[in-house]
Design goal:
Elements lengths: L2 E5 L8 E6 L9 E4 L6 H15 L3 E5 L17 H14 L9 E5 L1 H12 L7 E4 L26 H13 L4 E6 L13 H7 L3 H18 L6 E6 L6 H8 L1 H5 L18 E2 L3
Parallel strand pairs: 3-4, 3-5, 5-6, 6-7, 7-8
Antiparallel strand pairs: 1-2, 2-4, 8-9
Length: 277
């Protein structure tokens, strides 16, 4: 049976971390599982522990606490959660928890916001990306500055915008899985409804996930990269991690079995996987 360990961090420098080590470890890269704004990390660990044994993969669940990283989902924010995660990965390698191979990163809600922005900033540090039901996205659009788009920044010059533009081809040269529950259309308190976001991305998480997947496919074609982006609609699921694990098969997408033969998602239902132009 998988063992769940807690590793304390250093406030503002290194996030505390829950680590799930499978009973029998395979030579597969680890998986970073990034929590949402409610920070239910222990619940996520409990729900993913079985999947660690199924796949033989170590699962890393960092805790971006509210005091140290209140806006962690933006990644390149004032209190740099992206730098904190890079530091954590170095420490876990030094301590022997993980090897040198880049991990997969899977994020739920606010964690999905962080996951796709982190991967875009550091594509060489992520093997596969799974983003589940974020409230809003960074688009390959030069009309908005980060984190809305990749245009000129209001503060600090345009170094971040340049980095995102330069990285887009490498960002898209990996498997990207986009998931959202088909019932996740409510206007809850954590869903930003700024006019520019609604105009660009849509009114709810389902519309926004579809819009982003389509925009990134178009961007991949412009970059002459063959897109490997899959959009999966989870049937009978709202905006809850436990709900999506129980009813949408989320655990197997969040922590997948590593297979070199196929990088496609299983067709679990005729409406679940859609091609997004």
């Amino acid at each position: 049976m998988a063992q769940i360990h807690f590793r304390p961090g250093v406030p503002g420098v290194l996030p505390s971390t829950w680590l799930i080590r499978p009973e029998t470890s395979a030579k597969a890269p680890p998986v970073l599982a990034i929590h949402g704004l409610n920070r239910e990390v222990e619940l996520m660990a409990d729900l993913l522990a079985r999947q660690a044994d199924v796949t033989g993969r170590t699962i890393i669940l960092p805790v971006f606490d509210r005091n140290s990283w209140p806006h962690y989902q933006r990644a390149a924010c004032k209190k740099r959660s992206d730098w904190a995660l890079l530091a954590l990965l170095r420490v876990l390698r030094d301590e022997g928890w993980i090897g040198a191979a880049p991990p997969d990163i899977s994020g739920f809600s606010g964690g999905a916001q962080f996951a796709h922005r982190f991967t875009w900033l550091y594509p060489e540090n992520v093997r596969r990306l799974c983003v589940v039901a974020p409230g809003w996205w960074t688009f390959p659009d030069t009309r908005g500055s980060y984190p809305l788009g990749v245009g000129m920044e209001n503060l600090g010059g345009n170094a971040l915008a340049f980095r995102l533009r330069a990285n887009i081809g490498r960002f898209l040269a990996r498997e990207v899985v986009v998931m959202v529950g088909d019932l996740d259309v409510m206007q809850d308190k954590n869903l930003r409804n700024d006019a520019d976001i609604v105009s660009q991305q849509g009114a709810n998480r389902v519309q926004r996930a579809r819009s982003w997947a389509a925009a990134m496919k178009r961007a991949a074609r412009r970059e002459r990269v063959r897109p490997n982006i899959r959009f999966q609609l989870m049937e009978n699921c709202g905006h809850g991690f436990a709900d999506c694990v129980a009813n949408g098969g989320l655990a197997s997408a969040f922590v997948p079995v590593v297979s070199e033969k196929s990088k496609t998602l299983p067709k679990l239902g005729k409406h679940q996987i859609e091609e997004v132009a």
